[in-house]
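Title: Prediction job returns without error message
Component: structure pipeline
Severity: low
Priority: P3
Assignee: unassigned

Description:
Job completed but the reporter wants confirmation the result is attached to the right record. Sequence as submitted:
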Amino acid sequence: MIPKRLELMTTEGCHLCDEALAMLLAMESLAGCWLEAVDVAESDALMERYGERIPVVRVPESGAEIDWPFTQRDVLSWLEGLA
């Protein structure tokens, strides 16, 4: 089962983050899922945790994460494995 909410850890000017966002938005399997872009530059704690790793997709309820590089297939397999 696909989570109802995902976060994309990102920041302004990150071309890999833009690529990841476009890829996630194109995934039909995520239809109905809320995808929130979280700018890690807005928090020192988030910068420390994600600054070198972005883009990262995160399930807020469980804290599960998948780091870049990932494909649509990788994300789907990862999400299915969480169920």
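Comment from assignee: result matches the submitted record. The domain at 11-82 is CATH 3.40.30.10 (Glutaredoxin).
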